[in-house]
Amino acid sequence: MAVDIRELNEKIKTESAFTDTIISEMSRVVVGQKHMINSLLTGLLTGGHILLEGVPGLAKTLSVTSLAKIINAKFSRIQFTPDLLPADLTGTMIYSHKTGEFITKKGPVFANFVLADEINRSPAKVQSALLEAMQEKQVTIGENTYKLEEPFLVLATQNPIEQEGTYPLPEAQVDRFMLKVIIDYPKKSEEQLIIRQNITKDYPEINPVLSLDDILRAKELVKDIYLDEKIEKYIVDIVFASRYPEDYGLKDFENYISFGASPRAGINLALAAKAYAFIQHRGAVFPEDVRAVCKDVMRHRIGLTYEAEAESVTSEDIIAGILNNVEVP
């Protein structure tokens, strides 16, 4: 079926205007961090989960809570600790003396936005409980299974500086995060503004400007964004270059990659590129949209060998090489 790009562009331009409202509302309390805000919007528009990595104090929690307030969504924060149990996350069955029956007490995972703070502080059993919620969008308590309300978004944070007392996330779980976003320090001017904002009496308040229904409608619209067959092939080439670098003139990378990106990488590249185009108010995906989201989608999906680590080659270096070598349509 032929797609009228001009008509689609006009429709998306009108329907995606609310993203500017969200960004400007968040910018009132979150100084800088434009990339993180755009990534959160991408996750929200596609239903993809996000792994945020950065040192403490970079407004990760503030950004997520602000976004939840803007769209009037239910938010819960779970501090992951070594003694956390799966039931602390999902909920449990409690015996009621009044009725003489067991009743279900739902856990903090029953929210639209779940902030899993320092996810790598908890053992595998707890991480796998979150995994079912992330992948299946459902939770099993006792013999009953409960569907989670849409939109459902897990935003997990990792502290990259502390390795003691942490449980590294298994590759299979990391792969379930659509994006891995690295958050950096603010600029000097931004830091000055952060200090000024936090010591003033009138700290800006976040106002709800959208409803959950608006977001669910936008998620459907993102699916309508046109993805040309040439762009599809471009995405496939990027993924395949991470698995078979020698086929793309990247023989040097052969010894650095222990495993390439999974099929989820291609799916998420396409989805994230569509969301990026939507945020840019366009009805079709361009190659630059794919390039813009590529590092966040791919960086946690490429396994590095000991040789790569010895020579300080990162997954970012490999992605940059892939983007430079794969032919752009």
What does this structure look like?
- The structure is a single chain.
- Helix 3 packs across helix 11, helix 11 crosses helix 12 and helix 12 runs antiparallel to helix 14.
- The protein has 2 domains: 135 residues, Orthogonal Bundle (Helicase, Ruva Protein, domain 3), CATH 1.10.8; 166 residues, 3-Layer(aba) Sandwich (Rossmann fold), CATH 3.40.50.300.
- It is 46% helix and 15% strand.
- It is an alpha/beta fold and 329 residues long.
- 39% of the residues are buried.
- The protein contains 14 helices and 11 strands.
Task: Provide tags for this entry.
329 residues, single chain, alpha/beta, globular, 14 helices, Helicase, Ruva Protein, domain 3, Rossmann fold, 11 strands, two-stranded antiparallel ribbon
Structural class: alpha/beta
Q: Order of strands in the sheet with the most strands? A: 2-5-8-1-9
CATH-defined topology of the largest domain: Rossmann fold
Question: Stretches where pLDDT falls below 50 for ≥5 residues?
Answer: none
The counted number of beta strands is 11
Report the sheet with the most strands, covering strand number, pairing sense and barrel closure: 5 strands, parallel
CATH class of the largest domain: Alpha Beta
Count of folded domains: 2
Gyration radius from CA atoms, angstroms: 21 Å
- Average pLDDT level: 85
Rounded to the nearest angstrom, the distance between the terminal CA atoms is: 22 Å
Succession of helices and strands = HHHEHEHEEEHEEEHEHHHEHHEHH
CATH architecture of the largest domain: 3-Layer(aba) Sandwich
Query: Could you state the CATH homologous superfamily of the largest domain?
Result: P-loop containing nucleotide triphosphate hydrolases
Number of helical elements: 14
Give the CA-based shape.
Answer: globular
Q: Could you tell me the strand content as a percent range?
A: 5-15%
Secondary structure: helix percent = 40-55%
